[in-house]
Amino acid sequence: xxLVSDHIEPDTRERILVVAERLxxxxxxxxxxxxxxxxxxxxxxxxxxxxxxxKKAIHEGVAxxxxxxxxxxxxxxxxxxxxxxxxxxxxxGTIHSMNTERYVGDNKLHEMxxxxxxxxxxxxxxxxxxxxxxxxxxxxxxxxxxxxAVSDLPVAAKCACTAMMRFFxxxxxxxxxxxxxxxxxxxxxxxxxxxxxxxxxx
Length: 202
Description:
By secondary structure, the protein is mainly α. This is Putative transcriptional regulator, TetR family.
């Protein structure tokens, strides 16, 4: 038998995360308190603590949600059929564009990323691992079809993601935006060439 509480609790957790993200965007992570979140939800801080044991836990939940959206988009591209090289180009470009849209130019969310890097590294690490695995899946498909000449898939995936770090990492995207360097298309061409793709500059 399904209990009413089985539906209420996940819904309440989601509402807390939605409101927390909105407040983080509006007034910043550091200035937002659990009391602020509770007030917006018309509940007591004690009730918020029933679902999240700390503000840090709420922050991690919001970070997982934002990162999860990028992961879902990446997996959709990886799971799609067709040649691997153009899909890898789309995958790398999508990760960059989604991170740019979310964090660059939004100082409040940029602050949240900085806090995540300092206080919730395991959340960031899990995200980077999943993204690397997804990139590796597409590289593996390209190797199987003969598009890429790769002997060590895990190393190839790590190298590709490391090469793209300037375009993946929110803080580096912001810091490098006005500095000299390759464009994202040039960097993706470089990655594809490194994988042995003959159509790197497509």
